[in-house]
């Protein structure tokens, strides 16, 4: 039998706040959450595993939107290969975007250096 826990216990075990749990629940990141007639939401060990996986995925650089697209894949099959493959695709896209930004910044840096040198030359010519 799977244990049930209230939001405070879940948050404590995952190292997050209850507010964070509620937010992730609203986004659908925690999967199905049981609500009993007393109005309390009860979370399971799967909820805890999902919450911990969300933390790992955030730490590798995924946004919550990206995590939404991948989190269920981690719990579809025991090897989690589908989830890992999707994360690799997302990270490759991030890397490509970073490379593009770095190229753009390098060009901008060269333009600034050129303009600085040109202005300094004008100042030098006016000073002599």
Automatic annotation (TrEMBL):
Protein's UniProt keywords contain DNA-binding: yes
Chain ranges of the HTH merR-type domain: 4-73
Any one GO molecular-function label of the UniProt entry: DNA-binding transcription factor activity
Claim: Transcription is one of the keywords in the record: yes
Record keywords: DNA-binding, Repressor, Transcription, Transcription regulation
SMART domains: HTH_MERR
Coiled coil spans: none
Span of the signal peptide: none
Top-rank taxon, per record: Bacteria
PANTHER family for the chain: MERR-FAMILY TRANSCRIPTIONAL REGULATOR, REDOX-CYCLING DRUG-SENSING TRANSCRIPTIONAL ACTIVATOR SOXR
Protein name: Transcriptional regulator
Organism whose genome encodes this protein: Paenibacillus beijingensis
Phylogenetic classification of the source organism: Bacteria, Bacillati, Bacillota, Bacilli, Bacillales
